[in-house]
Amino acid sequence: MFELLFFSLLNGVVTGLLLFMLASGLTLIFSMMGVLNFAHASFYMLGAYFAYTISTYVGFWPGLILAPILVGLVGAVVERYGLRHVHRWGHVAELIFTFGLAFLIEEVVQFIWGKDTKAYQEPEVLQFALFNFFGQDFPAYKAFMLLISISIFVVLLLILTKSRIGLIIQAAITHPNMTAMLGHNVPLVFMGVFGVGAALAGVAGVIAGPALGTFPGMAVVLGPIVFVIVVVGGLGSLVGAFVASLLIGLLQTFAIALDYSVNDLLMLFNITTDADSALRDLWTLSLPQIAPLLPYLLLVLILIFRPTGLFGKRET
User: Do 12 and 245 meet the contact criterion of CB atoms below 8 Å apart?
Assistant: First the structure.
């Protein structure tokens, strides 16, 4: 039992921090620009495909550097020549634009790379077990994912709270006219923020591609979860996104690892169920079966009892 809990905890943290890498870019974009980007997971997919293509020629490590830069440039172009012109028409127009962009990127990916899963592998130097515990190996690549995720969180937090760049970004959001009068190019700041947010999604794609698979539907798999994380953590809160990512990662991992039925959980609270009732099929459901629904159940509870999210200040 201890072995199960230990590895479930490790895998939950890895999953949660991977989700944070993806959610951090969306949180940055929303907190700075007020834009909920439906195409954010598509930039994550582009990161994986760009890295796969680069890795076939020059290896994994150049792909880790170059792919996020390319995705960031794509994001900057999208903001400059698309989103900036749509922004004047309000949030509904922005949502429709990014929603359509997500479909466009998926079609472009299928057109260029095809519909099959790509053989994108982790680097050979990380293809070993970091340690063995109770006869189970913990891959070094998962530890690498942990290191990258934590580094992104620390760097982003320091930049936004301690650096001059962070102060300019925050000033451009709250007082754009005053910031422009001080000589700062506010549209350029917004374009840079959107590009950096897209690049962060690209980093997540580069890291997750070898672990979760590189295929055209990968954006659809994680896209909805990212919005759950942003809402649960609090719109615009980087710390909230970090905590919510870990919470959802652990919740899903333990739900999959602990093979209990709903009836077993009710019995822990001395609640008995009627085997002949109309809900008898519900009581037989196992936690692994309902694990994909748990983040959305958490989202509903957050919206009911704390609409601003765990660390947010805006109403969702």
Answer: no
136 pLDDT above the threshold of 90:
no
- Helices 2-33 & 238-257, crossing angle to 10 degrees? 150
**What residues have CB less than 8 Å from 112, skipping those under 6 apart?**
49
Q: What is the pLDDT of residues 73-112, one digit of tens each?
A: 999 999 999 988 887 887 788 889 999 999 999 999 999 9
* pTM exceeds cut of 0.90: no
Residues 6+ apart with CB under 8 A from 209: 47, 48, 49, 51, 52, 118, 120, 218
Topology of domain 9-305, per CATH? ABC transporter involved in vitamin B12 uptake, BtuC (1.10.3470)
- How many angstroms separate the CA atoms of 251 and 295, rounded? 8
Kindly list the domain boundaries of the chain, sorted by start residue: 9-305
The C-alpha atoms of residue 145 and residue 215 are separated, in whole angstroms, by 20
Residue with token string 């994001």: 75
